[in-house]
Amino acid sequence: MNVIEINHLTRDYGNNRGIFDVSFSVEKGEVIGFLGPNGAGKTTTIRHLMGFIKPQQGTVTINGLDCWTSHSEIQQNLGYIPGEMAFFDDMTGTEFLKFMEKYRNTHRRDRKKEMLDLFQLDPNVKIKKMSKGTKQKLGIVVAFMHDPEVLILDEPTSGLDPLMQSRFIDLILKEKARGKTILMSSHMFEEVERTCHRVCIIKEGRLVTVDFVEELKEQQVKKYVVTLDTQKQAQAFSDKYPNVLSVVENHVTVIVQKNLDEFIRLMNEFTVTNLSAPAQSLEEIFLQYYGGQDNVQ
Q1: Which residues contact 261 (CB under 8 A, 6 or more apart)?
Q2: Where are the alpha helices (H) located in 10-80, listed in sequence order?
Q3: How much is the pLDDT for 62?
């Protein structure tokens, strides 16, 4: 069952800015990573899901409800972290949490305390005196404290220190195990690799690919480190192979895509003492969609 449905969503701001014919869905209990550089269309898509923007074309629904006409009903069981936090700065964190509880008509004090403890947040401070990281933690608590079934998270760990980032990843993994439905925009590739079932990549407002994280890795170019018998052989090998990334002493790092046979034949001409395939990160795969293998380092 699909909880989030986006069909042919278009918002054209002119000059090739906006999002164009975007379609994907998120199943119940699924965690999807939504990737793309600044300006690619991630936040615009998310703002449609939140009911902040009316689609020019296409439809956007959560649990079968239209996100524009039924946004108030949808948000009762939705957790949201915006890309840019905005609070009532004259409030304390405690006052803002109470305001959100009243707005949602939900009071889960046990869950709220759990989130405050997890992120070591003292809410009895004026929001205007909070650091960026502390405001981010407050935003996370607000998103999770009513224990929603659906979570939409736009750069959720922005401004957090490494310890809090790790705690956030652990929280997502727990929510994933509990069957929550999560759409998460992120630049933290470790975050996506560790938590997401699938990845959507958006480029210049258009969806480039939607695929499972592991399958996405397997389909892309491979990086190998070939160790030759001597430095002279390494240089000769690199002179013959077309896609060399680096030569360090007798180690040659190469890219192999559809030329595997050529790669094997060339290795047979030399004395190869070792062959290894370093794990390719999702970030490297992501960069391939923005300029091909020349971007893979």
Answers
A1: none
A2: 42-49, 71-74
A3: 97
Answer for the pair 65, 73: CB distance below 8 angstroms, yes or no: yes
Neighbours of 235 (CB within 10 A): 13
The CA distances from residue 184 to 33, 147, 159, 255, in Å, are: 5, 17, 16, 30
Least Cα distance to 127 among 81, 73, 91 occurs for: 91
Query: What interhelical angle do 162-177 and 132-144 show, nearest 10?
Result: 10
Find the angle CA(259)-CA(262)-CA(265) to the nearest 5 degrees.
150
- Dump strand ranges (E) for the chain: 2-14, 17-27, 31-35, 57-62, 65-66, 78-81, 150-154, 181-185, 198-203, 206-212, 222-228, 244-248, 251-256, 272-276
Characterize the bridge pairing of strands 2-14 and 244-248. Answer: unpaired
Name the residue with tokens 């609070």.
Answer: 87
Residue 128 tokens, joined: 């205007």
- Torsion sign across C-alpha atoms 125, 97, 183, 22: negative
- Helices 132-144 and 93-104: angle between axes, nearest 10 degrees: 30
Q: Domains along the chain?
A: 2-215 (3.40.50.300), 221-279 (3.30.70.790)
Please give the backbone phi and psi of residue 148, each rounded to the nearest 5 degrees, phi first.
-70, 155
Please tell me the distance from the alpha carbon of residue 26 to that of residue 78, in angstroms, as a whole number. 14
* Residues 77 and 17: beta-carbon distance below 8 Å: no
Structure tokens at 163: 């310890």
Return averaged pLDDT per consecutive 10 residues of the chain, 297 residues in all: 95 93 96 88 95 96 96 92 88 94 85 96 94 95 96 93 94 96 86 90 90 76 89 94 92 85 91 86 67 47
Kindly report the length of the chain: 297
